[in-house]
Amino acid sequence: MTEYLYYPGCSVKGAGQPYERSLLAVFRALGQGLTEIDDWNCCGATAYLSVDQDMALLLASRNLALAERAAGKDVVAPCSGCFLALTKAQETLKEYPEHRARVVEALGRAQLAYRGTARVRHPLEVLLRDVGAEEIQRRVKRPLKHLRVAPYYGCAILRPYQSVDDAHTPHVLEDLIRLTGATAVDFAHKSRCCGGMLTTGVQTVGLRLVEILLDAAKQVEADVIVTTCPLCQYNLEVYQDRLRKVTGNRYDIPILYFTQLLGLALGLSDAELGMDMLLRVPVLAAVKA
Amino acid sequence: MEIHRQVKYEEELDPGFASAVAAEPGGEGIWDCLQCGTCSAICPVSVYMDRTPREIVGLVRAGFREEVLAAVSPWICTSCYACTVECPAGIRITDIMYIVKRMAMKEGIRHRFVIPAIEEAFVEMVRRHGRLTEGRMGIKVAWKSGLRNAASMVPVAWKLLRKDRLKILRAERMRDPASLRAVLDGVGARPAKRPTPKGVPA
User: What pLDDT shows up at residue A289?
Assistant: First the structure.
């Protein structure tokens, strides 16, 4: 059993609740420990970096400094946005000593030490590398046969830092889908942008990006789309009805977190995985049989 | 119809603009651009931009400060980093977009465009609570983005509320948000207050 630090981020406490539930349930089922970082703060997301870089670096690095107190434990950040914000701050501070000095000083005044030693990881990669394919396969109780899954990575876990997988030919998500017994369909747009914040800010643009992804999933006859990020999940799931109004095309495809898919295969209950919190609950007749 | 001069004279350019951008983290690569346009081709939103990423980089280099800071493009950029990964010259174009956004913010160049206002609302909320409450943020965004947009979000909000995924009454907050503010103020960072508008590009 490995112990990890857990950086939830704001999204999984809100609309991303099904992600947090299923993540905790899956890690528990696989015997991995997750301890939430005490009194963590917002990662800064993309908003802070557009306004003030020092503040963006401070927000992210305060969390990293808190994590460094529990030396030796990796930080698991399920939200892709948080994963990138924390990674980016760490890489920036490594590369630019002037910024690092300012951050170290400001954190120091609050009795926090920053060394840049915490390892920030995404749970998808943790599951495959640390727990391992063999162990996961061994624990699968309910193979999701006949389920066609579109693997959707989104942006932030693949670009620009490529610690999770290669940006051009990623395969970790497909690997995980196959372990659950499901079929990973060839999804060409698997790392194309979901629209991010544009779905709320500039709907014409945001909705179009969502439409492209949903159409692509339809075309390859996917039963569900699996995501690794709360914002991707939100955009793809929530705007299906609105898109129908705008385009006249019908969209009705469940959007799951990869942790929910895995949890189903591990035999966990719908309640444990927050399946009932999805707006479109997949009909897994094939699974139940 | 009024006729305006369409071409800038050289003395109207800002010769120090490119260096200012290059001095920021991620901006260094600006000198390496060959104007190949790979960034604009891979960008999922360039078709909606008033200036494509390639143009932005070219304009920065040529010193078109006013045009770049007034552009809507950087605010449409979703930070997907496709351009950064694809650029054959290794230029961090996403970072350049961030640099340009920060410069525009600092100079108080306001767009009628909603995104900068959203970013500011985000910053204010996090400063107060240490965390973001999406439900409350959603209300602010809806408010800022106009009545029609706000109305279109009601059915979505209702569905999420029923699934217990939208929190509005109870804010997501740190136990001790003051401890975060102490850190933020440590670099002399002030709360993001609205700067006085200079010019509002149409």
Answer: 42
Amino acid in position A170: P
Closest chain B C-alpha to A134 CA, distance in angstroms: 32
Question: What's the pLDDT score for residue A70?
Answer: 84
Asked casually if ipTM beats, i.e. exceeds, 0.90, the reply is yes
In this structure, are A264 and A176 located in the same domain?
Answer: yes
Query: Does any CB of chain B come closer than 8 Å to the CB of residue A98?
Result: no
A136 within a domain of the structure (yes/no): no
Contact with chain A for residue B131, Cβ under 8 A: yes
pTM of the model: 0.94
* B7/chain A closest Cα distance in angstroms: 30
Mean pLDDT of chain A: 95
User: A59 and A43 in contact (C-beta within 8 Å)?
Assistant: yes
Q: What pLDDT band is residue B196 in, cutting at 50, 70 and 90?
A: very low
Residues A223 and A98 in one domain: no
| Residue of chain A with shortest Cα separation from B134 | A14
State the pLDDT at residue B200: 43
Q: List the structure tokens of B146.
A: 């106009």
Cα–Cα distance between B29 and A14 in angstroms, integer?
A: 38
The confidence score (pLDDT) of residue B113 equals 78
| Residue A134 within a domain | no
Residue A172 C-alpha, separation from nearest chain B C-alpha, in angstroms: 19
pLDDT score of A103: 96
- Cα distance between residue A128 and residue A132, in whole Å: 5
Residue B188: its pLDDT value, please? 56
Determine the Cα–Cα distance for residues A184 and A280; give it in Å rounded to an integer: 20
> Are residue A196 and residue A270 in the same domain, yes or no?
yes
User: Does a structural domain hold residue B73?
Assistant: yes
In a domain, A93, yes or no: yes
Of the candidates B106, B136, B159, which is a domain's last residue? B106
CA nearest B123 in A: which residue? A48
Quote the domain boundaries for residue A200: 141-288
Does A249 fall in a domain? yes
Whether A154 and A256 share a structural domain: yes
- Bond before A160 cis per omega within 30 degrees: yes
